[in-house]
Amino acid sequence: MRVLIVDDAAFMRLRLKKLLTQDGYEVEEAGNGQEAVEKYGALHPDCVLMDITMPEMSGIDALKAIKAEDPGANVIMVSALGQQAMVIQAIQHGARDFIVKPYEPERVLASLNKVLS
């Protein structure tokens, strides 16, 4: 299974990549929403783990663009505490799940298993 990790913080991408590769996932990375949309179109990953707040293009805007290209896309949003309004907006636009930072590794893997099964 291929997962695209989208976060403007390199350390967050690294942390998620380590967790997912240890669990057998193939991982690609993008540093902002615009890059995520481009990489999604090229790679068609099984799932996208995407931060909501990013420069250049927000996670919400990238979610909308990805869902417009592929209505069946599996996108899990990652948000900080206190972003409930954005989380609701993301779910309304087709996000399959959301994870709150700081997250527990088990929560990330459980979300992926739920969305990909």
Give the arrangement of secondary structure elements.
Blueprint: E1 2-6, H1 10-22, E2 26-30, H2 33-43, E3 47-51, H3 59-69, E4 75-80, H4 84-92, E5 97-101, H5 105-116
Parallel strand pairs: 1-2, 1-3, 3-4, 4-5
Helix pairs in contact: 2-3
Strand order of the largest sheet: 2-1-3-4-5
CATH architecture: 3-Layer(aba) Sandwich
- Going by helix content, strand content and strand pairing, the class is alpha/beta
Shape: globular
Uncertain residue segments? none
- Total number of helices: 5
Structure overview:
It is a single chain. The protein is an alpha/beta fold. It has a single domain (2-116), classed as 3-Layer(aba) Sandwich (Rossmann fold), CATH 3.40.50.2300. The model has no long low-confidence stretch (mean pLDDT 94). Strand 4, helix 4 (84-92) and strand 5 form a beta-alpha-beta unit. It has 5 helices and 5 strands, in the order E-H-E-H-E-H-E-H-E-H. The longest helix is centred in the N-terminal third of the chain and has 13 residues, at 10-22. Helix content is 48%, strand content 22%. Helix 2 runs parallel beside helix 3. The termini are close together. Keywords: Phosphoprotein. This is Stage 0 sporulation protein A homolog. The modification 4-aspartylphosphate is found at residue 51.
